[in-house]
Amino acid sequence: MPDPVPFADSPNRLFAVTVERRVRLSPAFVRLGLTGPGLAAFAPAGRDLRVKILLPGPDGYPATLADGLTEAAWRAAWRALPVAERPVMRSYTAPRADPDARRLDLDVYLHEPAGPASAWAAAARVGDPLLVSGPAPGAGDPDHGVQWLPGPATRLVVGADETAFPAVAGILATLGPDARATLLLEAADPADAAPFVDADDPRLDVTHVRRDGRPGGVPLLEAGRAWAERHGAGAAAAGAAFYGWFATESARVAELRRALLAVGLGADRVHTQGYWIDREGRARA
Ligand SMILES: Cc1cc2nc3c(=O)[nH]c(=O)nc-3n(C[C@H](O)[C@H](O)[C@H](O)COP(=O)(O)OP(=O)(O)OC[C@H]3O[C@@H](n4cnc5c(N)ncnc54)[C@H](O)[C@@H]3O)c2cc1C
User: Fold this and answer.
1) Against a cut of 0.90, is the pTM above it?
2) Which residue ranges form the domains of the chain, and what is each CATH number?
3) Residue 7 Cα, ligand 1 centroid: separation in angstroms?
């Protein structure tokens, strides 16, 4: 039997867009308002919907990467390029999409020192091109790229650093009136959480965890452990009525997952995800 085609069942396709607006949301966040005719065919799944962005090189994009290609096709075209010519690829969250208006927003955290994606976003100008891989309606699993899957749960805990604040906003937009959510938000500057979380929402119990110069993800790991010690057993006893979601630095979130499962939480009741990799930290270790 031939090998299966990678990403053959992905509902994602490539959208060629341009920057229409660039707004400074907070000290370290920019919102890029993107537009393109193809966005009429974007499936606005909301929540923590993950998209891939492919950054332009100095000469734009190779001709083989074009609007409308399926994920299987664009990845094959990307892999066929010489390594030095492959556009840099990164993951972002797209909870705010309006296919009728052919618009999509990305909120980019400008971390320091910047990598290619945050440097691109910091310098982006109106009219700059971008390729975004995201879902098309009816093309497959409508939850593809979505990890917030709480089922019937109304007792919730959500932990995030800045990179996951856009996902937190997408998640909060879907909460029902009965939901009660504990939020643990790590940031160097809590002002960066303000655009994403309504502090006056009575359904939310928000704790801001300051990074205070510590490595990213470490304060959230500590806060998550403290939450697990105090509330984990009760949350585990709540079964399907409880759901947890945490995203931060990869190694720290893996450690946090172990702590959450150690207090008895079911593996399907808590989603944990690495949103970035602390390469400097690994080099120091
Ligand atoms: C599913 C998913 C959704 C995401 N959604 C968003 C989103 O909506 N908005 C957003 O801003 N980010 C989001 N991220 C995180 C983003 O993909 C990473 O931060 C990515 O590494 C940024 O790429 P870069 O090219 O700027 O830096 P990279 O080239 O990846 O990294 C360069 C250097 O910067 C360091 N670095 C990377 N990220 C950070 C950070 N956050 N803090 C400190 N140092 C860092 C690395 O250790 C490395 O040394 C998401 C990630 C995932 C997996």
Assistant:
1) yes
2) 12-135 (2.40.30.10), 155-284 (3.40.50.80)
3) 23
